[in-house]
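User: I'm putting together a small comparison set for a docking exercise, and I want a reference complex before I start. The sequence is below, and the ligand is S-adenosylmethionine. Could you produce the 3D structure with the ligand included, as structure tokens?
Assistant: Of course. I'll restate your input first, then give the structure tokens for the complex.
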Amino acid sequence: MLDLACGDGELLAHLSAEAIGIDVSFDEVRHLGRTAQARAQALPFADHAFDTITCHLAFMLFEDLPQVVAELERVLASHGEFLAVLGGGPVAEAPDARDPRDAFHHFLEILGRLPRHAPRFGDPRARSEAGWRALMPGWTITPFERWQLDLGGTFEEVWEFLGSSYEVDPDRAEAIRAELHARCGDRPTCNAVVFLARAIAP
Ligand SMILES: C[S@@+](CC[C@H](N)C(=O)[O-])C[C@H]1O[C@@H](n2cnc3c(N)ncnc32)[C@H](O)[C@@H]1O
């Protein structure tokens, strides 16, 4: 099993002891065993080396997705499985139907990333079933599962999640934090969407 873009190994720690991880960032992988620094676009593995490849909150960020998919197809066994968790942002609600204490919408608004939190990073095909079908001809794509996560809590807990999930200009971080606190108070709600996506290699 391979964990693609394993970051600091949070998911890897829950996988089989035989699973290995790669990440482009040496800072992320240098403290971990069973990992290597590598790019998803050029995997340093033999053909058909893996039965399963996981990818948690990173597939939406990759450049040159067709090349990543070509590498997945090369290193996966025939009928091997690619499982990805894709970030879906805040719960998609019309602005007038939003929970006024939902810190996710306010945070993106303060960052200037609403409406519909544009501009988004990466290739938009990574985020939809139709996009996966276009990117992965010959693969079997199972319907995406939509999960809604309740990440509400203390202001500190919510800030920790939002501030570490999005790039925040360090010079503006204090002002953004204060504005968010003024809008949402000490116990904000914070609802996020993720998709569980699954594709079986040809
Ligand atoms: C949002 S983090 C997710 C990390 C980890 N999977 C997790 O859930 O904690 C995205 C990761 O993708 C990695 N990454 C970005 N582009 C990459 C690429 N082309 N090849 C490999 N890793 C990449 C980054 O270094 C970062 O660790």
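The first strand starts at residue 2 and ends at 4. Helices lie at 26-29, 65-75, 103-111, 129-135, 155-165, 173-184.
User: Thanks, that's exactly what I needed.
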